[in-house]
## 1
Amino acid sequence: MVNVQTNSAISVDCVIFGFDGVNLKALLVRRRASDPLYDDNELKLPGAMIRENETLPEAASRVSEGATGLKDLYLKQTSIFSDPSRVDEAELKWICRYHGINTDRVVTVGYYALVKLDQGLLRHTLRMGGLWVNVDEIHGLIMDHMDILSDALTVLQKDILWSPIAFQMLPKKFTVRQLQNLLEAVFGIEIDNRNFRKKLFSSGILLETDEMEKHVSHKPARLYMLNKSAFGKKELTKKLHFVASWL
Amino acid sequence: MVNVQTNSAISVDCVIFGFDGVNLKALLVRRRASDPLYDDNELKLPGAMIRENETLPEAASRVSEGATGLKDLYLKQTSIFSDPSRVDEAELKWICRYHGINTDRVVTVGYYALVKLDQGLLRHTLRMGGLWVNVDEIHGLIMDHMDILSDALTVLQKDILWSPIAFQMLPKKFTVRQLQNLLEAVFGIEIDNRNFRKKLFSSGILLETDEMEKHVSHKPARLYMLNKSAFGKKELTKKLHFVASWL
DNA sequence: ACAAAAGTGTTCCTCTTACACCCATGA
DNA sequence: TCATGGGTGTAAGAGGAACACTTTTGT
């Protein structure tokens, strides 16, 4: 009988994506040292150990709610990071001491959450010591948190093509340009504004409001809302007929 | 300090997909009872507990190699199944006894593997007591293995659109019809043969061989091979310009 | 000869792409 | 009045969709 690993701790780490109208950002927190060995300035993703009788989605909700103060965030599991050496001995000691636990191994599960980056949220995260950093400017996170982050971005890019989750990062009423900027930021591409509008309006997923932007020093843009009812699977099947982007 | 769960066991379960030229199949194994309480006929996905100092991909390789006798399979992680009640008390006892371990909780990680279903493999899996079952006819697996299976199929459908992994399930030399049947089986759709050929050939991903099918009682089809060099990211970026299928 | 699947072209039409100017507002 | 981003249309071309008959082999 070989040695089966049973004394594992499982954690979740959340990549919380937000959009400020121009850039895609992620929420980072400082490692709370409580330990002279560690630099209080090191940045990490918000995370936690799972508790007894808690599912992973529950743990991820707890973490993202703790970091943002918001309930019912859109949350999606990405990958598991299980390399036995992802946590070195010193880190393991710190984790055990910090959590008051004793374990041989820590496996972590990545999640991403999508939030609307409004003033209230900014204030909350600031109070909590969180930092919203442009995704393409993040570097030097602890352990394998950079891997977890880039994995989350890759998964987000794929997901966003298949469901209207992009709107989770926009205010309830938004301009066409905001949506365009968001997609450009997520994919790192440029989109032709005229063609984008044409496609967008003909798809019927936007509901026009009679409100306009205020206090902008240029022609104010109209605000739109998401038309949730404009989704159907018939279209998906049609799309699938042209099966496979590698063809 | 809350109770942090540390005494977890982590397992992997592999959905091994194969294609027989017509149907998409998955490899199932019988639960090895060694226990009068359990019916030896219950079917499950091949799986195992992770060992000390083993990563999850390593464990998944070990499981899929054990089940198929093949090395270097294409393997992809899908989701984690972490519901504390996914394993009921009786199951937990069985697992502990069967593996000679003691644990409070078993969390499992889903993987899928893609294989070429040839005669050698069929013989091997038959000897091992494995069963290749059409994916749409599978039901009644133990625990949450049905969930793991359908999750794997969903992930496969998305993945297959973004990379040429479909060819992992075809022989080195294959007919156009085989590829078409495979895609039809994976997505559950019908594809127009003439248009499919046009698109396929113009994409340049097939290399023509001078071999033909043998011993078929109709006009023999030409065999083709995959042209690995026909992939580039320039095309992907172009596709992304029409961002989002929900538009 | 017959059954069974392979292989092949054309037309219609939709959707993508590329592109430049006037408009409304705050400063 | 100026700077800034909002908002609009068209033409050319590519690509998708629909569709029926002949060919080759084994039995």
## 2
Amino acid sequence: METGSISNDELVGGFDAFLTIESGQTYRWTRSDGAIYAGRQNPDAWYELAIDGEVVRARPTETGLKWRSTTDADPILRRRLRLDDDLERIVAAAPDDPLLQEAYAAHRGLRLVTDPPFGTLIAFICSSQMRVERIHRMVTTLAREYGTELEFDGHTYYDFPTPEQLATATEAELRDLGLGYRAPYVVETARMVADGVAHPEDARELPYEEAREYLTRFVGVGDKVADCVLLFSLGFDEAVPLDTWIKTAIADYYPDCDRGNYAKTSRAIRERFGGTDAGYAQTYVFHHLRTGAATTEPVE
DNA sequence: CGCCAGGCCTTAC
DNA sequence: GTAAGGCATGGC
């Protein structure tokens, strides 16, 4: 076992584990008190992640982040929670927009995440018409039923299944596990990746809009889910997933950005949110609206 | 009971 | 290319 810590002093712009992990971007983490996504913090709870055959437990402290792990967790935490992002620069460069500025000010320390592409693809296929707590439950269930079991500190953890592991599932099994109509989508997509038909990783080398188009070849993946995979796992910080909350934001605050279809509206709101870091802006606005924290008046 | 949740698929035009 | 309807499940 290894232990270590990461000091707040090194993290430009700060870091908030609760906001970053529990803002609906990543569904891979669990919390030692079992109360993740319940909307409240617990300074005594550890965030736990099973990934790439390793287990990482991390807990925020007054001076930063303390961790215990099966391996050196420093590079894992820095990559997965984007601790080396210059958040101060990103916030400072954000457009002078009332709702966006309010969101950035209200949730300081919220960072984007970088999750593994296959797991992110499956998680957001599951996300269709589903609340974040239940997406987390589905992902956790898939890990428990099909993922590799890992032991650490006397506890059992489950890595998210590989495409090959998940491809052994049947639609009936996944329906029994509560995935509903998403069950065949998950099975078919897992088989596509396991069989080498396509891999979400292949989208990484493409220009943004071509990458989004590429990902929609997977079953259960439309423009919105594709944008989530690009933003939360493939490093496309310009991606702005148009989900129900962002569509509400467009209707209430940016009506001129509604261009009638996904591709054109996406371009307009991406431009409004500052272009290259528009995905960061999207995640703050999403969280701001979803938690009911917004006080900015709608336009007109 | 009805409504909604980080939508997508099929079908019809 | 766009529009309408169906789809599982659980919490309120």
## 3
Amino acid sequence: MVEDRRLAVLRAIVEDYVSTHEPVGSRALAERHSLGVSPATIRNDMAALEDEGLIAQPHTSAGRVPTDQGYRVFVDRLSQVKPLSVAERRAIGTFLDGTVDLDDVMQRSVRLLAQITRQVAMIQYPSLTRSTVRHIELVGLGASRILLVLIADTGRVEQRVIDTGVPMSDDLLGRLRNRIVERVNGIRLVDVAPQVADLIESFPLNERPAVATVIASLLETVVERHEERVMLAGTSNLASFGEDWGGSVRPVLEALEEQMVLLRLLGESRSGDSLTVRIGHENEVAGLVSTSVVTVGYARGDEVVAQLGVVGPTRMDYPSTMGSVSAVARYVGRILTEQH
Amino acid sequence: MVEDRRLAVLRAIVEDYVSTHEPVGSRALAERHSLGVSPATIRNDMAALEDEGLIAQPHTSAGRVPTDQGYRVFVDRLSQVKPLSVAERRAIGTFLDGTVDLDDVMQRSVRLLAQITRQVAMIQYPSLTRSTVRHIELVGLGASRILLVLIADTGRVEQRVIDTGVPMSDDLLGRLRNRIVERVNGIRLVDVAPQVADLIESFPLNERPAVATVIASLLETVVERHEERVMLAGTSNLASFGEDWGGSVRPVLEALEEQMVLLRLLGESRSGDSLTVRIGHENEVAGLVSTSVVTVGYARGDEVVAQLGVVGPTRMDYPSTMGSVSAVARYVGRILTEQH
DNA sequence: ACTTGGCACTCGGCAGCAAGGAGTGCCAGT
DNA sequence: ACTGGCACTCCTTGCTGCCGAGTGCCAAGT
């Protein structure tokens, strides 16, 4: 009973703070939300919430502000994902209509997400791991360098320059290409390794060193480069809520410049396609302690192939953000699924 | 004589302002630079410079600040490119050593440039126009969609998904691929069009619609997608000189997010490989009126293939920036040249 | 056992004011 | 043509006092 009202107070504080960006006091709370109690009672509740570490005051005699933990409770127990407005849905539809390329889909989606959330959006390219090999091509680049191109059924193309040390004839390249293709065509990338492992034995001794290098590179390509690419959009939105976090946008920008960081952000929430919210210090990245990250997986068919999400200030509008993120993920999934 | 001293005063003002970021007055100027005249004389010169529109004062009774035009004169007549320090040269060497991929070269170079200039760096991918075709591959993606992959001798790979409307057999794809390759292999991209124009006539009537679509896409790929890709680094450096331009970093970030804007910035200075500096309002991009852009072309062999450069505040250290930009361009050129 | 009104207290923010100082423009002298 | 002197402007800084929002606590009411 009492506990319920306390949570209602917390919810009210979060909502007010998110919309006004100013510490919220007991009087204003009592006025704007119909909690049915007086400011004095709210003060008592606030004191209790502060003891629990859910809210804090920037200075004595200032209003209260939610802490990271406060947002956590809000997200977990007090809020529900807010569905998108009709206008937004329509916007998504028109925005993502008529895509061709995988690149195109990724780029449009991430821009769209940045636009509707007014935050920084990111999207990870579909994992190579779960996709299958469509084609492999070897192209001599003169001397001892060759280009390995791997085309996955997701439409993604991986390329890699290999230095074999010794020259390879076009004939050899062709034969090798054919052997590889006939072994791995149509199988999943994860299953490539065992298929090509013994391939080398079918080549004469003098060709083996070069062949070995190529195969090694191929294996690296399929196992290492899983999901390395992340696309970003909306960094200019950082400027809006500029002075919010510790004075400067710099650490955030720095963090977002690092592919590795982005991959960790997206990768860690690898619990399938469920919506993940990491708030403030829950992010282990130094520069992002005053941001929240909302991510979700998107699927091709019924298999989750990668993640997308947004980065924003801890005092973001969680219900709307979560709604937008999951909506875009669904649309992206639908497009990827339809395109095959 | 007098004119000379005035310019010396302008130079001193620019240098001091760039290093202190504060309006500079006549007294400080007389002290820090040995101009051999008294503050009063300098004041007269300043008044003259102000009449010419080269400097301005933010408020009455504040020091002077260079205007865009002032910087222009400084860059054109008063400064010379400052060569890099030994340490910096060494840094470049080690940083760019051991690159394999074209992507790798681009990424490392742009990061390096951002790091040593402490500004935002950008680099354009080598133009496809001037390079030659190394290989072309057509891969069926099922149904009526095929993937066109074009590999240039610069190591760059262009891919494009084509919807032919009608299914194409692997046999047809193979024949078409072979025909195209034998026609265009080794020739420059700009010369591809005439070579493949009449290719369609060698196919039977029933295959022509599909073939026509593919060839049309190929032509688009070689003529339209010249130099579309630009890579960016160091945006977090924007935060350093944050409050400099009109209060917010936002317009700058917004401008830099647009590929088109970047391409214009790099593309407009298409006067060969000469160092170009565009100052403040000389940039026609709305968001960048309070930034300066320094660009230069880089070459593969003896042919300029693309541009690179930096974006920073108008009150940047022009001599050093220009030195760094052209040094990195030379190194990049050398690497590209060596790799073939 | 809660809730409520009252009350004293804290503290940040803001207007107003004065002093200080940097810098300018101009003039008269060399 | 340069210089020193001088009056003037106006930004900056620090100080003051005041106001108000907001709190915590207590005693009284339900």
## 4
Amino acid sequence: MNTKQRILDAALTLFSQNGYANVYVGQIAEAVGIKAPSLYKHYKSKQDIFQAILDEMKSRYDAQAAALNMNGNNAVADANTFAAVSEDGLVRMGMGLFMYFLHDDYAQRFRKMLTVEQFRDPDLAQLFGRQYADEPLAYQALMFSMLEKNGVLKEQDPNVMAIQYYAPIYMLLTMCDREPHREAELTVLLEQHIRQFSRIYSKEDNV
Amino acid sequence: MNTKQRILDAALTLFSQNGYANVYVGQIAEAVGIKAPSLYKHYKSKQDIFQAILDEMKSRYDAQAAALNMNGNNAVADANTFAAVSEDGLVRMGMGLFMYFLHDDYAQRFRKMLTVEQFRDPDLAQLFGRQYADEPLAYQALMFSMLEKNGVLKEQDPNVMAIQYYAPIYMLLTMCDREPHREAELTVLLEQHIRQFSRIYSKEDNV
DNA sequence: CTTGACAGCTAATTACAATTAGCCTATAAT
DNA sequence: ATTATAGGCTAATTGTAATTAGCTGTCAAG
């Protein structure tokens, strides 16, 4: 019934594993349980399927972004948002981000697909960069600058703190993408990273 | 004359930009200045060209690794190797790594190619992980553990330090791959990262 | 000087994958 | 009840890309 959606789903799975060019429309159709020509009742071409995936992902992303900056008309988080962030808070936040990116069905497949297609088209490169680098970094830089103002953290460049906090999370994520059997080991390292980060930057020097 | 090599070179360029499946043997041939069928005098198939690139890269990599562990039969660096590493030393090392990966002809293309093909084959995934994650991390963890012993750095988990040092470098590298016009801006951030890292972890607390 | 292998070419051949044509059935609206 | 539409199918069609066949010129070794 909801064939149109199931096509996108199957296509995303296949594209993320093999890349656009290595996937045949027949495979997508088979995964959905129909024959290749029937796909064309729903999308006018293979490229059109790819574009539909992108569009859906963009709108999900926008929705999520809108949800984050939620306070009605206020575009950015204010100091109070982060007032109560502790070491455990940072751990929760980082692990949550990580687990979401790693296990959420759409998030993981979409990330892999973009990884694999990013150099073919500047638009994709930009989308990728925005979604997995610039936006998270900006958000976290904001967070850290708040935490400094609140006297929780040492006064250091928040942009640098953001990349030192986030880049390891992202790297561990890509390592899990490549070698899922190492998830347990890498998750441990992730938590150690966040705790050490928090300890090192926290103002009460408990080193 | 050295057509065989020039084929690899052209193929690597194209594969890294478009991915294996999007490159036609005719394009490779054209880049070399011959016709497609002539390729088959040198390689027995398109797949064979891909494999030859991998083989060459593996051997380059092994050579480089061998050069690093140079002391004749001694497999790992000893404490003295890192005795004199200062903040500026760390900066030089990190920026050097970065610039090499970013601008070296082979290094950059090979990295992009692997990025784009990594999920298609577990062997490629493993190769990628080893080359761009596990090996650098192991090397740097070793370095940091030495620097701790020497009393230069605070005593913190060296594996964590390694990922906090290296992951930002790698992330900035991939950002430059995607959006080369941002190189200047990102290079600044890179240097700030390393200096801040060094300051934060150095034992004489100059915060 | 002639022979063979090397490296190139043009012209098939083969294979296969995307898409189109045209037919069929069920179901929902008129 | 009739009909239009949605969504499926099989059987073309089209296009293209990898590879093979088979010819040619060059040049080094005998």
